[in-house]
Amino acid sequence: MQAHALRCSKRLQEQLEARDLEAQGLAGAGPAITRPIEEPSSSDDNPTVEQALGINDPIPRTADLEDAQLRAHIQKGYSQDKFYVKILDKPVEHPCFVIEHKLIYMVSPAGAKV
Description:
By secondary structure, the protein is mainly alpha-helical. 43% of the residues lie in helices and 7% in strands. The chain is built from five helices and two strands. It has helices at 2-14, 18-27, 49-53, 68-80, 82-89, and strands at residues 97-100, 103-106. β1 (97-100) and β2 (103-106) form a beta hairpin.
């Protein structure tokens, strides 16, 4: 039994997989060229799109939210949407949103209301 296991073990050792052959070929190619990874020194080195473009107000205000009909239509939509109902019911539990004048705004990572 041991002899059979030894033969099987030897056969397994002798078979090289394609990836092993490729690795052997690459080993003779010379040292790999590596560059050190540069870590950003501050958040200024990793800006958001808004910051990179210098946009203070990311969404152009094309709609006149002072229009009573538009506001009423938006507010009616909130009551019919399960997502917005949760925000209206418990705004403290949803810190990424702000409610102003009965309208829900999302707060962007830059702090802008969108």
